[in-house]
Write a structure and sequence with these properties.
single chain; mainly alpha
Length: 226
């Protein structure tokens, strides 16, 4: 599904989508605020990489999702130690496209550190308002090379009804010879767009999002879903 969605978009169109996503307005502000998601306040995987900080929650808002006040307080003040403990084994150097099957199982499968952070962020029993879209973006801010963003636009592009299984779908796309060629293609799109700071996961996210909706609008309207 993912490979087909990307194959349907030419190299030139993909590079064009990223170029447009990073356009800066005459007033110095970005056309798409999401273009600052990775780099705002120094980057979530660089500055305090094992803590979810207020700057990370602001960065998430640049992708047009809202972290409710109760959730923000809980994440920053109450869950800080638990999240830090779980983020440590998910080192910032890890790349989803390079994980072995054993690494994937240990880090991203059910019961893994990433899965446990996901559950902490969701706090479904507390109903504090963080859905699958916002949770994915908080995790992606902290580990942009390991955890893909989830939103309804990209999900529709690849035929997903919800975020369940997305990490495995993305990882499986990088397996075998075809997967290596896919990663190389994403790296080439990144290089030709000049946005070398992007993860290959974010290249996919931007290209599919722009192809599905963003190229026709200048205001991001992703929203969250449960």
């Amino acid at each position: 599904m993912l490979l087909k969605a990307m194959k349907d978009i030419s190299h030139e169109v993909a590079v064009g989508h990223i170029n447009k996503y990073f356009v800066v307005r005459p007033n110095g502000r970005p056309l798409y605020t999401g273009s600052r998601f990775e780099t705002f306040a120094g980057g979530g995987d660089v500055v305090e990489p094992n803590r979810v900080t207020p700057a990370d929650l602001i960065a998430v808002s640049m992708l047009s999702v809202h972290v409710p006040g109760q959730a923000a307080l809980g994440i920053v003040e109450k869950l800080d130690g638990e999240i830090e403990k779980l983020l440590k084994p998910l080192t910032a150097e890890l790349r989803l496209e390079n994980l072995t099957s054993e690494q994937f199982s240990l880090l991203l499968d059910d019961g893994s550190p990433a899965d446990d952070i996901w559950k902490l962020l969701r706090q479904r029993a507390d109903l504090w308002g963080i859905g699958q879209t916002t949770a994915s973006k908080i995790l992606a801010r902290k580990r942009p090379h390991l955890v893909p963003n989830y939103d309804s636009v990209v999900a529709e592009q690849v035929g997903m009804r919800h975020s369940g299984g997305q990490w495995r779908i993305w990882w499986e796309a990088f397996q075998g010879g075809e997967g290596r060629r896919f990663a190389e293609r994403l790296e080439l799109i990144r290089a030709d767009s000049g946005q070398l700071h992007l993860s290959v996961l974010r290249v996919i996210d931007i290209v599919l999002w722009m192809d599905g909706r963003g190229a026709e609008k200048t205001r991001e309207t992703v929203g969250d879903s449960d």
